[in-house]
Give the backbone structure.
Amino acid sequence: MIILGIESTAHTFGASIIDFDNKKVLSNEKMNYTTKSGGMIPSKVADFHVENCDKVIDSALEKAGKTFEDVQLISFSQSPGIGHMLKIGAFAARTLSKRLNVPIIGVNHCIAHLEIGRVLTDAKDPVLLYASGANTQVIAYEGGKYRVFGETLDIGIGNFLDSLARFLGLGFPGGPKIQELAKKGKKFHKLPYVVKGMDVSFGGLLTHCKNLYSQKKISIEDLCLSVQETVFAMLLEVSERAMAHTGKKELLLGGGVACNTRLQEMSNIMCKERDAKCFILENQYNVDNAAMIAMLGGMMHTSGTRQELKDTEVNPYLRTDEVLVSWRN
Ligand code: AMP
Ligand code: MG
């Protein structure tokens, strides 16, 4: 089955063609909305997606050596995400589904991050540390559903890094810039470490870091190093606790922040110490991408899930554990 996946939960518009029967990604195209200064205004990002959606979809087909006639299922990000952007992807998916007369299926973006890991690695039943711009969650399959074992109580880890980077004048996206500066850091400074049970929080830490830097109490390199060591330790503490609680022996990283080499290194150390396995995807599957949307659409369709056009309304706030899981036993 040839599937077209469409991703548009936030600043990325993605399109991917997969050969589902062979679990092969034939193309995985994307365009990202960026700014030189400031953040994202949803209506502007939506305009960007409208302007670029056909280019990205055409390019996905071309790279895969396929045409619209080959597409047998269309899958799109239905939840969660920013309403303005979600609607563009859903609109493109609905239009194509009607025009091509092929089934349509809306999927949950967070679960797609986990499922692409199960397809592309040897992970069978991992705990997912999903560390992206807006989302920071520890997710695992338990009792017939994907459950959130821990999450941020305020902003996502990526938003935290981007906000700090914006304050430091480093531009967007800030995560990679902080990673490079951290490599030049010499001294670790103790920072507020905020883990509450299974949850984490970054808001107070952000204010603290801004104050430290404004008061010239720390160099930019040492700040970046100390920030990375602190926030990644927080994320791994709650991930490890979820692994202990569920008895799972696999950790999977997902989300844009999973591209960070220091987070990857620390994850490997934690897993080694508890005799577990750590799975890290190629960066193109860590960031928001449409291949994972196509893959989850294929799993749902194969297990019998069907949607009418009326079922394809987007849901910006759907919780991971509200999704009925039909494709795992
Ligand atoms: P996503 O929302 O999953 O597309 O991820 C976007 C987020 O990933 C942004 O906040 C980026 O700053 C962050 N990011 C990307 N690469 C890195 C990196 N190497 N280290 C830390 N954060 C990163
Ligand atoms: Mg994501």
Observations:
- The radius of gyration is 20 Å.
- Residues 10, 12, 132-133, 158, 161-162, 173-176, 179, 255-257, 259-260, 287-288 surround adenosine monophosphate (ligand 1) (CB under 6 Å).
- The chain has a mean pLDDT of 96.
